[in-house]
Amino acid sequence: MDNKVYVGKIVSTHGIKGEIRILSDFDYKEKVFKVGNKLIIENKEYTIKSYRKHKNYDMVTLNDYNNINEVLFLMKKEVYFLKENLNLSSNEVLDEDLMTFTVLTNDNKKGIIKEIFYASQTNKIIRIQLDKEILIPMNSPMIEKIDKEKKEIYIKLLDNM
Fold first, then answer.
1. In order of start, what are the domains of the chain with their CATH numbers?
2. Number of C-alpha atoms within 13 angstroms, CB side, residue 61?
3. Within a 10 A sphere around the Cβ of 90, how many other Cβ atoms?
4. Can you give the three-state secondary structure of 79-135, one letter per residue?
5. Whether 114 contacts 133, CB under 8 Å
6. pLDDT tens digits, residue range 136-158?
7. In sequence order, what are the beta bridge partners of 147?
8. DSSP H or E stretch at residue 49
9. 152-155 and 19-23: which strand pairing?
């Protein structure tokens, strides 16, 4: 099952009715956490029976587990989702896929993506290695195009960069 993507980690239970608390910063949570979707935990599929947001957590009940004692074995486990079930649009790319893309600039430089990280809750940054290292916000107008087919990202560098 190498076509799965990391979604988050189960950090605790909530209440006594088998609800589990998942800590996730996955970009496309709205595509993953839907009733009826299947989550993968330790290479086993579990069906989401209920979902709600609570503070910073994604709260789910799985399969027919109705009791806290039935879900304790899932604590501290990593949660995955099948990539093909994400149904990403042409302009949506997973960070782990973007890491394999080649960076091309307007002045014909070629580079690679070294890291993608959050500077704040809403500000995602791409660390790019050209002849020198540069940081570009993911929502920057400097990113002209992301070509999923060619696995290339086109960057317009500003003067003196």
1. 4-85 (2.40.30.60), 95-155 (2.30.30)
2. 15
3. 9
4. EEEEHHHCCCCCCCCCHHHHCCCEEEECCCCEEEEEEEEECCCCCEEEEEECCCEEE
5. yes
6. 999 889 999 999 999 999 999 87
7. 152
8. strand 44-54
9. unpaired
